Amino acid sequence: MDSILFIVFAGIAVLCGLNLVLQKHPISSALSLVGVMGSLAVLYLLLGGEFIAMAQLIVYAGAIMVLFVFVIMLLNAGTEPVSKRRLWVTYGGVPLMAAGIGIGAYVLQRSFPSTESVKLGAFQGGGAYEIGKKLFETYVLPFEITSVLILVAIIGAIVLASKEVN
Amino acid sequence: MNFLILSLIKAAVVAFVLMTTLAYLQWIERKVIAHIQLRVGPRRVGPHGLLQPLADVIKLLTKEDMLPSHVNKPFYFLAPFIAVFFALIAISVIPFGTEITIGPVKTAMQLTDLNIGVLFILGLSGMGVYGVALAGWASNNKYALLGGLRSSAQMISYELPMAMAIAAPLLMLNTLSFRQLVDAQGGYFFGFIPRWTVFQGPFPQVVSFILFMIAAFAETNRVPFDLPEAENELVAGFHTEYSSMKFASFFMAEYANMVTVSCVATLLFLGGWQPPFPEQYGAKFVPSLIFALGALLCFYHGFNPARPFDKITLPVVGVVFLGVAAAFVAPVISTILMPLFWFAAKVGIILFLYIWVRATLPRFRYDQLMRFAWTFMFPVAVVNLFVTGLLVALS
Question: What is the CATH number of the domain that holds A71?
């Protein structure tokens, strides 16, 4: 059951990812990205990370992508024009990309040889309680530094967006 | 019994009850608003218009499905599906009552108890925005687009105070599973004050409850925050270009969201199916008493009929009411019905509040809506969360 769900949602994630690149309209691309995020959330769920899955759904698929879609709608962005490609790009693009992915996979496999495969649903402790305990005990310093970083980003955004005051 | 078969049966029952509730919620809304405005409301189809929802469903199904020529077709078709899908699926984590045993089967009155149920609901409400935003954009109509944009901005803004209002009672109850939330609210202070989070120490969550209800009104696009479909400015907002079943999908999504939000408010703040006063003061007999009173009223009007056929119909209804009253004191059935009754009663009161507000308050202006969210709701929610956290940490 777990592996069927994994194949289905991994497939959806890959298809949405491809669609994201292939679509010409920004809204279609943005919605494909939502599909990728949603499928990733299900994959996290299959791996036992319930809290991460929901955070993925709320933060990425929900909040951030809604803002993306919102901005695209406000800017009223139309279909992207297709630029004229060079001959070697038209015919060599797909084989070269496949070769690149193959080399990357080979290098990864060689440098991190894994002895056992991932067991779906074997991991316990991805609930809110465990994550919270880890976040506020073991990883409290990185967590706090990240929040300072976000604060800096917010202040930067306000400075950029505010009108000049004499 | 097989887990799969059991789940299918439960899903079928919940889906049937939810659909019926959605259809009749609209009838109740029309009736209540009519009576508040000194009208009689629908009463042509069936006795007191009781078959009106059925007629509406047939009307919506058989109406001509117009497809405007200028729309972006894939997204135009996708939007109502997204809206109704994310609205209906939320009911799957809502518990309606305690664990029950029917013959050999022992099951909870809930489709699934997620240990992250509250987050699941929040995630779904975030995804529901896409339905509205896409509908507005794909319609290729300035009113629809404005409605969609308003709606997404409003839902994003009010999600923040809503999530913070939800977080405060969670701090006190220490769980994200709806079933455990309700279990943690069982029992009474001094023997009669229920341990619901609105009454529970160290900090009664009244402020959170009010904030949550206000945000819920905005999240479900209801009066006084129904800016996305303000008909005097935007025709009908994001669903201007939709007709027939696609329009009905948005309609259904709105009412399903109302039901979900009311259920969440009940579970988080009002103790779910926990009765409002203890059993030794007779909480067991409240539903029987209500239904018996209803039966008596029916009998009285049956014997003093205003119309000739009341002589037959009202006593029949009275007998049915008496039967329901008897079921609530019957030994085995009552253990199943009692939690359901209290849960439905609380959800019903919140839904009535929705209708009452709709009949009472005028609509906000858009800038007022946004200012209210960011300069009032958000700071109050933050302070409320801080105070709750501090008191929980100290106690």
Answer: 1.20.120.1200
